[in-house]
Write a structure and sequence with these properties.
419 residues, alpha/beta, Aminopeptidase, 2 domains, six-stranded mixed sheet, four-stranded antiparallel sheet, 10 helices, 16 strands, 33% helix
Length: 419
């Protein structure tokens, strides 16, 4: 163990450089830029670390196009036997940088013990931790009993359907070959995530009647009617959601409540450029409803339908259309799962304390591992502070990267039966 830890500490500069290399590849999703370049960069590093590498492409998925190919990367290192097989996964797509940065979001800036950049904690540092946890075992000369697989996948930020879901559908991650999966999402180094709440994304469109803006009484304003719906949500639905709490240990604590967010809204004429005096005849809004395991999807959707119906019956000429965009059911790692105990034991050795067992406020690719691959022995654990994800000046502390890599390496040894 001392030799293993020494190897990881000696590789710190390599790990920082590799993370910075990945951060300089702007894999922004949408639309899915530079996926091939990033997959190949990860693949080169895996090959140098004695992995057999291939590049599964999500052929046939609507997201996969000639201009934005959906290329994943998977590396396999076999031990004395193929099983147990431990799969370490990280997504390499990142959300747009946004405003408010004081450093170049794609510059791979290293300063004051931190690696800055869009995707540093969410989750390119996690990919580095996965690669170097496996590499440290090799450099320390510890023979593997089972096998290790490391993957870099696409599109997690938009659902993961061309990434981890694709690998699961193709059988690359499946109960027939995979014994445990660790997704190296940022978990503050001292937490392990054993699931997440459910997601219901939906779109509401209100339809009105166009008229001259000087005579709005001759038309029906779709934006005003959307305002009625939003007001009902604010006054009636949001207080009800705030009163509901899950027994699942979601962190942070406020995320244990059911929530609703307005993701985006558009109606009437574009506000840039020349305007004409018209009553808005159409308005669309997209909503993100996070529901609890105790609520269930059917009741969650029925509640939205009831609110919309009541608004339509109360307000003359209010017409709406509801469209389901995405549904993700809650998932939870089974009690007593070996991947949880392996990580917890490793954390007690490395950090000197047990891991906090929690559930994620947002979804991650656990859903595909559980629902499609049929591998319930799955958690999230990795470097980085979750609260920094999608924020300006996102960073991962170098010390967190090193410590998480040690925890992962020890856990992999235990899960593969290697020590």
């Amino acid at each position: 163990m001392d030799r293993l830890f020494r190897v990881i500490e000696d590789a710190t500069d390599e790990m920082v450089d590799f993370t910075a290399e990945l951060l300089k590849i702007p894999t922004v999703n949408p639309p899915g830029d530079a996926y091939v370049a990033c997959a190949e960069a990860i693949g080169r590093r895996l090959a140098a670390c004695d992995f057999t590498v291939d590049y599964p492409v999500a052929e046939g998925r609507p997201e996969h196009t000639a201009t934005h190919p959906r290329m994943n990367v998977v590396g396999l290192r076999r031990g004395r036997t193929m099983r147990p097989l431990v799969h370490l996964n990280g997504h390499f797509d990142v959300v747009p940088a946004g405003d408010g940065w004081t450093v170049d979001p794609f510059g791979g800036v290293v300063r004051d013990g931190k690696i800055y950049g869009r995707g540093s904690c969410d989750m390119k540092a996690g990919i580095t931790a996965a690669v170097y946890a496996a590499e440290a075992i090799r450099r320390a000369g510890i023979p593997l009993a089972g096998s290790i697989e490391v993957s870099g996948t696409v599109d997690e930020e938009s659902g993961g359907f061309a990434g981890m879901a694709w690998l699961a559908q193709q059988g690359r991650v499946s109960a027939d070959r995979t014994d445990a999966v660790i997704i190296t999402e940022p978990t503050d180094t001292d937490r392990v995530y054993v699931g997440h709440r459910g997601v219901y994304w939906f779109e509401v469109t209100t339809s009105g009647r166009i008229a001259h803006g000087s005579m709005p009484f001759l038309g029906v304003n779709a934006i005003a009617h959307m305002g009625v719906i939003l007001d009902r949500m604010r006054r009636e639905l949001l207080p009800a959601l705030a009163a509901r709490t899950t027994a699942v240990p979601v962190q942070p604590p406020l995320a244990r409540h059911a929530t609703l967010n307005i993701n985006g809204i558009a109606g009437g004429q574009p506000v840039d450029g020349i305007q004409t005096p018209c009553v808005a005849d159409r308005c669309r809004a997209v909503f993100d409803r996070r529901f609890l395991a105790e609520e269930g999807f059917a009741a969650t959707r029925a509640e939205i339908v009831a609110l919309l119906e009541e608004a339509a019956q109360t307000v003359p000429e209010l017409a709406y259309e509801l469209r389901d965009l995405m549904v993700v059911h809650p998932v939870k790692t089974p009690d007593g799962a070996s991947v949880v105990s392996a990580l917890d034991g490793a954390a007690r050795t490395v950090l000197g304390r047990p891991l906090v067992v929690a559930a994620s406020p947002g979804t991650y690719d656990h859903k595909h591992v559980d629902r499609i691959a049929g591998v319930p022995n799955c958690v999230a654990y990795g470097p980085g502070i979750l609260a920094l994800a999608h924020q300006p000046d996102e960073y991962c502390a170098i010390d967190d990267l090193v410590q998480s890599t040690k925890v992962l390496a020890l856990a992999v040894l235990g899960l593969t039966g290697s020590g």
